[in-house]
Amino acid sequence: MTATLSEKDLEQHFEHTLERDQRIEPRDWVPDGYRKTMIRQIAQHAHSEIIGMQPEGNWITRAPSLRRKAILLAKVQDEAGHGLYLYSAAETLGADRGDLTERLITGRQKYSSIFNYPTLSFADVGVIGWLVDGAAICNQVPLCRSSYGPYARAMIRICKEESFHQRQGFELLMTMMKGTRAQREMVQDAVNRWWWPSLMMFGPPDGDSPNTAQSMAWKIKRHTNDELRQRFVDMSVPQAEALGVTLPDPQLRWNEERGHYDFGELEWAEFKQVVSGNGPCNAERVAHRRQAHEDGEWVREAAAAHARRHR
Ligand code: FAQ
Question: Sorted alphabetically, which SUPFAM superfamilies does this protein's record hold (predicted)?
């Protein structure tokens, strides 16, 4: 005799899995809202990795030495790999990869605001490693404990690779800081341009974040946007001191009482502009991705024909 589980039983099983801090797996029943939120976050994350290849990719042909070129190529390839694991994780929830790509190139799905800023000098490559990968790790290490199994497991490998990326960025900046005065100025200029956008990567302030409360209840997110932003500031100040650069915030100071650094207000109007498609490079980034997708049409057709023949 097979007993059919009612919707209530399934819901209870889902709640118990969360309460016991176990992982939800692809075969498990989940509420529609959970599936939708998880697909949204994973897709936005995957798109960020793929679009995130562009700002640094811009410097591959102009890296100052063979060693720097090899390092940068490997890093950008890792980002492609992260995008692929993440699209696969979204597929386990029933999403279609082709559809997600279509949503990205038609501007219907978001990707991280940070990748809409230009990379003006080679120091930007170092600062992206140090600050952007640094912020990504700060945000993603807690996601290794996210309630959705395939996403949490993808995060473990992604975080390992991103820690390596962060160290390569820091090492590149250290080398430049020990170089000429012009190189030190280049690093400082890059830090000035990337500091505030890096803080925006953590998302809107908690009071303005429509998804945080539900995502925390579902244990998709483990900390709020502001908690992680603060953690990142606290972590970055001593690193900036070690490098010998100034973070461009006159209000940045240690608050003994709070046990954290106080920092200035972010330009939330700028964040909204960038997220709604009007940042300095949004149009260029999406156009480039759309072109790459169209150029790859023949590869997809050939792969499908090959698969049909083998079936
Ligand atoms: N940019 O209610 P919340 C990387 C959207 S990977 C654009 O707070 P949530 C690796 C948000 O999606 C970087 N949109 O949303 C790398 C939501 O959109 P909706 C990507 C943003 O989801 C390094 C709306 O605003 N990392 O860097 C941003 O609870 C170097 C309301 O916000 C991830 O995706 C933003 N900064 O929290 C690659 C990590 N912030 O509802 C190359 C996973 C918020 O309109 C080089 N994601 N929005 O569709 C997360 O942890 C979360 O999704 C947050 C946002 C924290 C990003």
Answer: Ferritin-like
CA–CA–CA angle 273, 278, 283 (5° rounding): 155
In this structure, which residue's CA is closest to atom 42 in ligand 1? 52
Nearest protein CA to atom 40 of ligand 1, as residue? 203
- CB 112 near ligand 1, within 6 Å: yes
pLDDT tens digits, residue range 121-151? 999 999 999 999 999 999 999 999 999 999 9
Is the overall model pTM greater than 0.85, yes or no? yes
Q: What structural domains does the chain harbor?
A: 7-310 (1.20.1260.10)
Note the pLDDT tens digit of each residue in 220-247.
Answer: 999 999 999 999 999 999 999 999 999 9
**Residues 28, 38: contact at Cβ < 8 Å?**
no
Judge whether 239 and 198 are in contact, CB under 8 Å: no
